[in-house]
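User: Design a sequence. Structure:
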């Protein structure tokens, strides 16, 4: 048989395009599985919460549910006596309405009845006949987990393309989700090739080495949720290799081998791959060091990959090419191994025309990471112990200067830090922008209210702070707070969009609520947002106007409002409280009222903008986010899903 040496070497950047010409790197199909069988599978569909969690306001402790204003000043010397109206156990729907001077005994996890706003722990009470003595005061919301405070109905819980771990299984089951759609897993066979390779556990003869690659590759595939069959070691024998692989082509979708790929006379993998069928070898040699003798073939619409024999070369090519390639086939959205930028501590000289892969140890400092090269020989396995990853030196550079930044692909995960921190007000459209911009996978969102977002920017903790704070003096949204928070020279407001807010009430508005003045009625119970939220600021502004018009103190006015101190964190929690009869009305987004099938009384268009530190404007993911805001075609397409509840401004996406 004629000897066949390398075809044209190709760059790493070309590999995927070459393979895609012959073999579509996409999922093989979708199947529906029970969550009991979903561990390590890849989701094929976004999962949204079908219910609120918790699904009702519930007690976090054993104790007594009370009205906090009934027990103001209660302590060991001055206990407050309340009449015990009954007892509520977990799983019961309370039919009790607690009035002033009353309390109800409640167990951990039990549903909060109407009329109370906090729970006193049993340790601070004493029961006597049908009365309970309270020895400690509470604040509204104390020891109560409000509806949707954990997860709100309609929240995006997990994105398609995510590997389901045990934590997600718990979340899915907690939301009542029994089945999920996942991508079909390819069937994969793994071999090690070489006359010198010996299975671990057997005696090692002179000139032999124990197999590393078969176990390395198999474990790497299992780590991303696959079930590869490691079929052991095959010799450098054309006939044996051909026979085994021809048989496997009938059973497997992908075959991965290691060893036997060099252009030497004894290496046969590339010849077998090419002879098994059409089109045969499509990649034979890469412009990388180490890893040059990498082979890829397509046979009968099956993918065959031959990796280098030296363990470190094998593993680096596996991480650089094979894992991302298979990641596409199993539907992983973020399927690349983690990469970071790091400085090199000294000058490195390399040859042009090849990408160099050098294992490194990473040292972290206040200024970032420094990548120290690990010395190695061709067959070394010690770099697996000492290396955190490998630096990628591009083929078009021959000198890497001291303190230059290089790309490092990680062997082991660093602490899972998000790339984009968004802290402040929450919003439906914001989630849509992140998802459609492929930023959601890289983002952590903390919904702590607009004021919390301003503080996070001041502490340089947030990349972006969504805000809709109304300045009561100027009646201008957001901009006046730049000076109030001392951020005029440090941060910029990027124009966002308008959101329609108003009063959310029960379906068909049975109590005929028309405006905020109705909140003062004795038969109305409201649900309020937490202090610091833009919605709370807006409601307080409206109430202060009413107080001024009626000539009464603001604090006296709000003392007349039932539920003013019943605080929840999100718009959906407001709607849920009304939906479940815990409240009659509350201020919230119009879109939330629609989602919960409640009535909505519009009040105003608020301005929902984004506060960003000057130094973060050029951060990649911040820049992408701003670019998406400026793309009005993109934004209008998203807003179309929420007709009537959002609007763009001419300067959306630009500094205010």
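Assistant: Done.
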């Amino acid at each position: 048989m004629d000897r066949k040496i390398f075809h044209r070497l190709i760059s790493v950047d070309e590999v995927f395009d070459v393979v895609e010409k012959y073999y579509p790197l996409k999922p093989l199909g979708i199947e529906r599985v029970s969550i009991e069988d979903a561990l390590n599978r890849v989701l094929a569909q976004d999962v949204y919460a079908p219910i609120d969690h918790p699904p009702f306001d519930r007690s976090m402790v054993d104790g007594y549910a009370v009205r906090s204003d009934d027990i103001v000043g209660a302590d060991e010397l001055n206990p407050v006596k309340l009449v015990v109206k009954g007892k509520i156990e977990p799983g019961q729907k309370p039919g009790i309405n607690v009035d002033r001077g009353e309390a109800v005994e409640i167990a951990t996890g039990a549903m909060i009845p109407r009329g109370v706003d906090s729970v006193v722990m049993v340790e601070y009470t004493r029961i006597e006949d049908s009365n309970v003595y309270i020895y400690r005061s509470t604040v509204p919301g104390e020891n109560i987990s409000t509806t949707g405070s954990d997860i709100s109905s309609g929240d995006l819980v997990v994105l398609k393309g995510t590997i389901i771990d045990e934590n997600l299984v718990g979340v899915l089951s907690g939301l009542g989700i029994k089945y999920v759609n996942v991508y079909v897993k390819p069937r994969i066979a793994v071999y090690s090739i070489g006359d010198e390779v010996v299975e671990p556990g057997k005696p090692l003869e002179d000139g032999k080495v124990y197999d590393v690659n078969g176990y390395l590759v198999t474990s790497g595939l299992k780590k991303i949720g696959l079930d590869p069959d490691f079929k052991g070691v095959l010799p450098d024998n054309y006939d044996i290799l051909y026979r085994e692989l021809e048989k496997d082509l009938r059973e497997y979708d992908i075959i991965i081998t290691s060893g036997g790929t060099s252009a030497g006379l004894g290496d046969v993998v590339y010849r077998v791959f090419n002879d098994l069928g059409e089109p045969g070898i499509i990649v034979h040699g890469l412009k990388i060091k180490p890893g040059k003798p990498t082979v890829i073939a397509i046979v009968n619409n099956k993918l065959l990959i031959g990796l280098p024999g030296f363990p470190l070369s094998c593993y680096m090519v596996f991480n650089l090419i094979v894992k991302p390639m298979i990641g596409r086939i199993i539907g992983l959205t973020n399927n690349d191994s983690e990469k970071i930028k790091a400085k090199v501590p000294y000058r490195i000289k390399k040859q042009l025309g090849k990408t160099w892969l050098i294992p490194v140890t990473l040292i972290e400092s206040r200024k970032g990471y420094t990548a120290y090269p690990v010395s190695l020989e061709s067959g070394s396995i010690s770099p697996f112990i000492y290396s955190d990853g490998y630096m990628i030196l591009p083929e078009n550079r021959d000198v890497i200067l001291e303190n230059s930044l290089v790309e490092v692909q990680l062997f082991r995960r660093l602490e899972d830090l998000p790339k984009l921190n968004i802290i402040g007000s929450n919003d439906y459209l914001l989630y849509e922008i992140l998802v459609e911009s492929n930023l959601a996978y890289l983002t952590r969102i903390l919904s702590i209210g607009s004021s919390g977002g301003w503080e996070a920017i001041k502490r340089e903790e947030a990349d972006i702070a969504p805000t809709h704070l109304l300045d009561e003096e100027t009646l201008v949204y957001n901009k006046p707070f730049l000076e109030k928070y001392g951020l005029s020279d440090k941060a910029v407001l990027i124009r966002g969009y308008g959101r329609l807010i108003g009063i959310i009430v029960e379906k068909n508005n049975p109590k005929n609520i028309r405006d905020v003045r109705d909140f003062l009625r004795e038969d109305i119970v409201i649900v309020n947002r937490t202090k610091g939220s833009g919605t709370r600021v807006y409601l307080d502004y409206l109430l202060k106007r009413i107080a001024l018009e009626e000539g009464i103190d603001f604090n006296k006015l709000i003392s007349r409002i039932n539920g003013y101190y019943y605080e929840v964190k999100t718009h959906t929690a407001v709607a849920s409280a009304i939906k479940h009869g815990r409240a009659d009305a509350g201020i919230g987004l119009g879109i939330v009222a629609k989602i919960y099938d409640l009535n909505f009384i519009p009040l105003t268009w608020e301005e929902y903008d984004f506060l960003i530190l000057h130094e973060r404007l050029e951060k990649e993911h911040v820049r992408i986010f701003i670019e998406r805001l400026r793309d009005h075609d993109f934004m209008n397409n998203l807003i179309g899903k929420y007709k009537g509840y959002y609007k763009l401004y001419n300067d959306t996406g630009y500094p205010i």
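The first strand starts at residue 30 and ends at 34. The domain at 58-145 is CATH 2.170.190.11 (Molybdopterin biosynthesis moeA protein; domain 3).
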